[in-house]
Fold this sequence. Notes:
This protein is mainly α. It has helices at residues 6-49, 52-61, 69-107, 122-131, 139-149, 168-175, and strands at 111-116, 158-163.
Amino acid sequence: MFKMDKLTVFAAGLLLSSSIFGIVYLSNNDDTNTANAANYNSTEAQKQSLSETEMKDQLLNKGYVVLTQDEYQQNLAKAKAEVATVTKEDKTSNKKEEVVEKDEKEDKVTKVTITVKSGMTSYDIGKILNDKKLIKQTPFEFSKEIEKRGLDKTLQLGKYTVDSTMSYNEIIQTIFEK
């Protein structure tokens, strides 16, 4: 006769149970779809019957701002005019502030004493100078500049004092002696 192993019996059980669930789902789903369709039709009818003022009132009650196209354009024009006025005022005040800041920067002289220890490289010196805002270059750029000038082997142990009034070349000459 026909011999059935466990896997075949299991597969047949899954097929039978999924068929039963499918039939039950599809038979109950018709009632739900009918109720949803009736709900949808009544909501659509209600939406179509609202007047413009009723719609505005509902939106205002929910916290929305309702403007006509003309009101929007007028508000937009006013805002642009205000921004233009404020920008002009800011530009004039910024120029005055820049002059004051330049004067303050000129008064401040930053002095830094760099102690070159064994094992330090031009990159380390560049990092110190960059951190103290004595040079604009990154430590890597500074190191490459020193190598390009052939000064990377001339770094000597010791203390070197540099300040913000010195030029880039003066700082290099002070620290890297030939």
